[in-house]
Amino acid sequence: METNEIKNKAKLVEAFLKDKGLVKQHIDSYNYFINKEIKNIVKANEKVLSSEDAHFYIKYLNIRVGLPDIDDGSNVMKSTTPHECRLRDLNYSAPIIVDIEHIRNNQRIRNTNMVIGRMPVMLRSSNCVLTNKSHYELAKLNECPHDPGGYFVINGQEKVILIQEQMVRNRIIVEEDGKEIIASCNSFTHEKKTKTSIVGKAGKYYIRNNMFQDDILITVVFKAMGIVSDIDIIQMIGEKEKYLDKFIACIENCQELGIFSEKQALKYLNNKRRQTRSAQSYAAKFSVIDEMKDLLAANVLSHVPVIDFNFRTKALHLALMIRRVIDAQSDRNLIDNKDYYGNKRLELAGSLLALMFEDLFKRFNWELKMIADKNIPKVKAAPFDITKYIRKDTITNGLAFAISSGNWTIKRFRMERHGVTQVLSRLSYISALGMMTRVHSQFEKTRKISGPRALHGSQWGMLCPNDTPEGEACGLVKNLALMAHITTEMPEGPFIKLMRNLGVQIIYTCVGGELIKKDIYVVFVNGNMAGIIKESLVLQLVHQFRLLRRMGYIDCFVSISVQRRHKCVQVSCDGGRLCRPLIIVKDGKPLIEEKHMNYLEMNLWTFNDFVHAGLIEYLDVNEENDSLIACKESEIIAQTTHLEIAEFTILGVCAGLIPYPNHNQSPRNTYQCAMGKQAIGAIGYNQRNRIDTLMYNLVYPQRPIVKTRQIELINFDKLPAGENALVAVMSFSGYDIEDALILNKASIDRGYGRCLVYRNSKCIIKNHPNQVMDVILGQSLDAITKKPIPKHDILENDGIAAAGVMVENKKVMVNKAVSTRSGNLGPSRSDNFQSQDYRSAEVSYKGSVPAYIEKVMVSSNAENAFLIKLLLRQTRRPEIGDKFSSRHGQKGVVGLIVDQEDLPFNDYGICPDVIMNPHGFPSRMTVGKLIEVLAGKAGIVNGKFHDATAFEGAKVEDLCEELAQHGYNYLGKDLFYSGMNGQPITGYLFFGPVYYQKLKHMVQDKIHVRAKGPKVILTRQPTEGRSKDGGLRLGEMERDCLIGYGASMLLIERLMLSSDSFQVDICNKCGLMGYNGWCQRCSSSSSISTITMPYACKLLFQELQCMNILPRLTLKDYCD
Amino acid sequence: MEAKSENPRWVMREHEVFKEYARETSSKATALKNYIQELRIEIVREEDKELEFDIIGCDISLVNAFRRILISEVPSMAIDKVFIINNTSLLQDEVLAHRLGLIPLRADPRLFEYPPSGRKDEEVSEQDTLKYELKVTCTTHPQAPKYSRLPEDMYRNSKVYSKDIKWVPIGRQGDMFPHGTEQFSVLENDILICKMRPGHEIHAFMHAVKGIGKDHAKFSPVAPARYRLMPAIELTKPVRNEDADLLQSCFSPAVIEVVEKETSSGEKYREARVKNARYDSCARNVYRYEQLKDCVKMTRISDHVIFNIESVGTLPPAVLFTEAVKVLKNKCRIFLAELEHAGV
């Protein structure tokens, strides 16, 4: 079918990102939490009662989160900015404000605007000061306009709550575990998290649930649920022979157990119950049977609502699970694929914070209750006022601690997760962005499983196929694709109603038999059975639903899909589903026409208008399964339902930087995704205002000549990380083997690859509780010359080094002194300063290469203590051993720096900046890089930036033609003259610009030598590691070599003399160690010999002696 | 074609370059003599910053020696030390110093000596050092046009240019060089050093010394010095009509001309002819076309070098070349002296 191409389709991607931003998932999720979810949570826990006073209560009427502010030191709150919090090591958080109603003195009192704690505020969320600010306003707030936000600032650190991947909840999943076929359902409600499984084993069907000790026959549960008649049970499961045959054993078994009535069944279940402490407390109040019923309702498929102990829906659900197991037993194809992405949900900051907050809020309420219980009985002058006892710390510290440590401990779900948050990597702009789109899987990293690691077809367009780390986390850590959107939760009530209106017979009117009829489809809303519908009406239902959605009557993120093999219709509106926008195709024609694109061009329409107009809709993974999506207009056939907006959007942020990725071998793109995050460049417009622990900047970052669409979309061209280098592909000097690069010295002289390294040095002047304060002393003067001692010579009079000063190794930057009496209580004599009360705690510079102080900040932190931060700067030019990489996973270290006159030059006198060995190409197959050279070259002769977007970049033929037109060889190969002998080089050189990234691994940070140096106190052996100036270990294997060779003296030298040789006096009589020529044991000095042994050996003997083991040394003459 | 056909050639094939075999005719005894006799230098184009000349009949290694010396051993003056009094601009001190160092100066290096090594920073001599000062403060413009938001209009000195660098005489330099301000100023006035905003200030003193490109690229007086071999294009078969136009398009403009011809039978046709191969870019794009592949022989004459010097601007390129010759001469002298010393 011929269809006209939509011009500038990629503009829609731009519009999408303009609307949503790059980290909309995080922000949306957080916004939903602080604006809606938090209200639901409070509503669910709105009353706090006291067991002491029946009249007493506290009721939360309303809750909201305010705007971020900080205490300015005098208990006055003032508005703050994220940057201030970063600099001053504060929390960027806002007060949580509630209106409450409570009883004081038997009177109902309303208090509004009570602060119960502080909520960390996500940057760029609805409550952040940065939202809807122009670039100019953001600049005023010291914030980079390209910073995506979506993270928190806790104690001055930027923390990201990572996206967690999880199995879907409340849906039936059929899986195979050994020989058993299990249909399980993870139920998840606000109160409970349970798992119910139907296990088919040995011809019978059992239910498996945490509340029972072992598997329970399913028929018993049915009976306990009030479906006593066997006929009823069979009716629910199926009257066909297939089902009857398989199920009859269960019915028989039930009769053998002697269970016929509901009561008998409940009693039986009660015996099988797992005994818990909470269960015992129940016993006192209710009868065993009622209690069991309660437990059944709450624990078995807890997401299925039970109203007035009517278990029918639950039973129907169970019956369906059994049917699924029976079906799967005969047809293995019906076993669900756990790696299918429709069965996954992504958990975001909002939902994680909601869990945390609910837990903390409950604890907060429990604390209030305890206080009330304790204080109400006491008779006091003033009536008991609960508001006086509200402590903000529980919630404030709980949230801040969870985010700063990453430990998510939710008591009610017995959930304990570590590493949920990470410090936002600010190595480069890309690394920060990459971190925001990262998806972490819950699977164990150490397990050798291939399924969850493999790329699954359903991840198309949702997750980046390239961006995953190598090694143990491979495939478990993923990245979102450019246009992927994660849904937020939505109330499901309206959709159940809507289903009824669209002709679905509601589930409560079903007896059971209807469900299993041949032509009946079951309709699920969020995994809950909503009703049934005739097969002939299914398509109509789905069509009407989609129509309503396209009209905008239903939220665009609600999905409906038909699962034919299960004969059901799934309607989903839960949170955490991945979905993506697609252009709707009708009758073989995409709905978007030129006029619509013009609206976009003229800024009349935003992306959302396309959605509202029903031209674009969001599909989640399940609904994608119901659709036929064309990649290009030319691929549209009659059945096509949707059209991709742009093909390159299947890639993520990091893979988007690669030019011509579709021409590269796939792993190379993966390597580049990892390396792009290590590239040095610009990290944000506010980089000069930041005081980070470590920051790398390029002096002259350039935007790549060969660009991709994504580069412009994510503003990489405004915050680049790399430089365009003229690269000649040739072999040169032998210093370029193993991917080493040759650099032109003149290029380096002119600033190529030059980078700045910023580090900070921090110092806190504490206010101790006993009124003692740490102090900063001035310079110490030399007693004789009256000049400052050398290590203090850069200090100013205030004891802090000044900005602009060069600091060398061991120079003191802040002459701090700590009070030695901080432990003592009681006020000290503050009148005279005594130096003996203080111990020096200087902040000095470590590092063999000097640095410059860029700026000094003196401020105060949250505890009102002085906070001094110094920003140190180093400028580095590339040296041999520094690591560089192109954008094609081709990394290499500098092997040689060559003078310009020695390098080859062409007719125009151009020398390469970088020489790369051609051996890098054949095995790596990075054809993309070859095309990048051509595109770059054609770009510079033409004065334009060539496009190299995946699947649509500039064509090679066109590039060649362009080169030929400008008098260059069409292959990109030029004649060069050797710089050394002046002759032409036999063979033309492939020559052109390639975008090279300087990676953070630099020789200066790794170089390590030691001759003599520090030793460990305990063993007297040399220290370990570069940071402690340690020695290089002659390890076990090296030792084995020397043993094999027989170099015994060398061994002695290496292992003892150069390490920890020690002279010990040994008594020849008793064989023990003596001291100073005297054996204490024998009380004599008659037969002492001095020998040399490793100190560690001597230590071992002494330690053995401490353990009542006596090692004796018997000495002999070496010559005997 | 001016080149004689027996001249040794480099043949440029589609994928390789190789030297055509040529019999060594000159005897060793008279080599130098022949050399001197046959060496020809023809100046083709001389402008104030650029010089193009042909060196004919000279071995390429000698030509390359001049190129190498021009790049790395002919001295020039450049800012080498920067004493920063105050720098509140956004540029880091080191970066500012680096940028200042790369600014070309007008000062003639022949007037100065090399600075002695191991001298302390503060000790300078009028013989070998030029002192410069840069002092710029950015302020808001009091009479800024009301509706302009251009930094140039709103602020004073929002951009620091190389012209802001001022020469400061040391010692008797003021008397020695009465025109010092022009003589030692920066070469280009509009090199942007830094952008500033109100409140920013740069105040720095700079010492410029004489140095060579080997130490740092900023001392290199050329940008660049290069040569290429004279291209020669031969048409081995006649190329006519459309092919002739195609052939013309494969080379740089004015390399191939198409002339109207007439066969003996009076039929008109157009044939390609090599007009002037000198300025061909030697892109070898003829080899793209199957029909033209075998019609052309592209070569380069190996003893005809087109030398091109582009000076940074301090000294005229011709002077630079003579300086380079002097450097080589000196080297030879030293070498001969060494040989003598060794007793050979």
Could you explain the architecture of this structure?
- The complex is a heterodimer of chains A (1120) and B (344).
- Chain A is built from 28 helices and 55 strands.
- Chain A is α+β, with helices and mostly antiparallel strands and 1120 residues long.
- In chain A, strand 13 and strand 14 form a beta hairpin.
- In chain A, helix 2 packs parallel to helix 12.
- Chain B folds into 3 domains: 123 residues, Gyrase A, domain 2 (2-Layer Sandwich), CATH 3.30.1360.10; 141 residues, Beta Complex (RNA Polymerase Alpha Subunit, Chain A, domain 2); 58 residues, no CATH class.
- Chain B has 344 residues and is an alpha+beta fold.
- The longest helix of chain B is centred in the C-terminal third of the chain and has 26 residues.
- In chain B, 23% of the residues lie in helices and 32% in strands.
- Chain B has 8 helices and 16 strands.
- Chain A: It is found in: Nucleus.
- Chain A: It is an enzyme of class 2 (transferase).
What's the N-to-C terminus distance of chain A? Answer: 101 Å
Low-pLDDT stretches of chain A are none
Through-space gap between termini of chain B: 46 Å
The appropriate CATH architecture of the largest domain in chain B is: Beta Complex
Radius of gyration of chain A: 36 Å
Helix content of chain A: 25-40%
What's the structural blueprint in terms of helices and strands?
The complex is a heterodimer of chains A (1120) and B (344).
Chain A: H1 10-20, H2 24-44, E1 47-49, E2 57-65, E3 69-71, E4 77-79, H3 82-88, E5 93-104, E6 107-120, H4 135-140, E7 152-154, E8 157-161, E9 163-167, E10 172-177, E11 180-188, E12 193-201, E13 204-209, E14 216-217, H5 218-224, H6 230-237, H7 241-256, H8 262-271, H9 277-283, H10 288-299, H11 312-330, E15 344-347, H12 349-375, H13 393-405, E16 408-410, E17 415-417, E18 421-423, H14 429-436, E19 438-441, E20 477-479, E21 485-486, H15 493-501, E22 505-506, E23 520-525, E24 528-534, H16 535-551, E25 559-563, E26 568-572, E27 578-586, E28 589-590, H17 594-601, H18 607-612, E29 616-620, H19 621-624, E30 629-630, E31 642-643, H20 666-676, E32 694-698, E33 706-707, H21 709-713, E34 723-729, E35 741-744, H22 745-749, E36 755-765, E37 775-776, E38 806-807, E39 812-814, E40 816-819, E41 838-840, E42 843-844, E43 851-860, E44 866-876, E45 883-886, E46 891-898, E47 905-906, E48 914-916, H23 927-942, E49 946-947, H24 956-965, E50 973-974, E51 976-977, E52 989-998, H25 1003-1006, H26 1036-1045, H27 1048-1057, E53 1061-1067, ...
Helix pairs in contact in A: 2-12, 5-8, 8-10, 12-13, 23-24
Chain B: E1 9-12, E2 17-19, H1 31-38, E3 40-46, E4 50-56, H2 60-72, E5 76-87, H3 93-101, E6 130-137, E7 139-140, H4 151-154, E8 155-156, E9 159-161, E10 165-168, H5 173-176, H6 180-183, E11 192-195, E12 201-211, E13 222-235, H7 241-250, E14 256-262, E15 268-274, E16 296-311, H8 317-342
Antiparallel strand pairs in B: 1-2, 1-16, 3-4, 4-16, 5-12, 6-10, 6-12, 7-8, 9-11, 13-16, 14-15
